[in-house]
Structures are given as C-alpha cells and as structure tokens.
Predict the 3D structure of the following.
Amino acid sequence: MEALYIPQLLNAVDKTRVVSFQERLPGLDTLTPIKGELTVKHQVNYLEVKAQAEAIMTLTCNRCLQNFNHRLSIDTSELIWLEVTDKLGHTPLEREVALDDLVESLSPQGYFHPSDWLYEQVCLAIPHRQICQADCPGIQAADEPNIDDAPVDHRWATLAALKTQLPDS
C-alpha cells in the first residue's frame, strides 16, 4: 500500500480515504494474503484509522510443538494525533514521559504509512498462547528405555568389557 500524504486527506470526500487491500506484508508469514479494508479519516488535529482484515497463519502449538493453522481476524481502530514537532525533529535522549504522552503522533504535513500500521495491528492480533486445541495434551513422554537393553556403540565395546571385569563395590 502506498503512503498517504496527510494534507491531501483534507481534500478527499468527507476527509476520508478508504483503501481495500489484499497483500502480503514483508516480515509476516501468512498462508493467505491479508485482505480487508482500511479507512483513514482526517479529524483536524488527529487521524481516525479503522481496519477490518483477515488472514490465515501457521502457528506452532506451545504445548505439543505441532503446527496448526489459525485464522486472524482484525477489527480495530486507533486515533493518531497530528502534532507539529520542532523543525529538526530533535528529541532529547532522555526525558520523562507522562502517561498521557504515550500515544501515536504524526506530523500534520507528513505521511501515514498504512502497511506499517497494518503490520503492527496484525502482530498484536497473533495470540500469545498458541494452543492447537483446548484439550491439547502436550508432548507425550516416551517410556524410558532400560539402559542395559540399549545397544552399545561398538567404539565403546572394549570399555564395556572392562566394566564387566571390575568387582562391584
């Protein structure tokens, strides 16, 4: 998806741009392309971004380590504030950040990158606990073989013969 120049949104019908997409995002392995619709609306001092999308991913079960397919369904929205920063874009290396400052912001004269935003939303939709089934038993422990029955590597045969000659102590 191409980047959207934020000032051009002001000239769009209802200050809104709707983008339908069906594509693969770099760095995100999905079985099917991510398809859906993204709406970006300019609200004077912020952008209102909404997306509905879906895709299928192959995940690995955290219990049994088997691969399984999982349908990701995204229906999300976010407000991105439009703030003017200093011309050089300098920010101090260390600064105290208030809880209210933990919001996404862009320059009102800059670009909005829908692909980057969509990538972040898809990553947030991937489940933390990746379980293939609710009743997944996990990895099945194999019966421990009897050490005496285990085949002896022929390179250790001489050592095994010496071991039988030693008195039990």
User: Anything to note?
Assistant: The longest helix spans residues 114-125. The chain is about 15% helix and 30% strand.
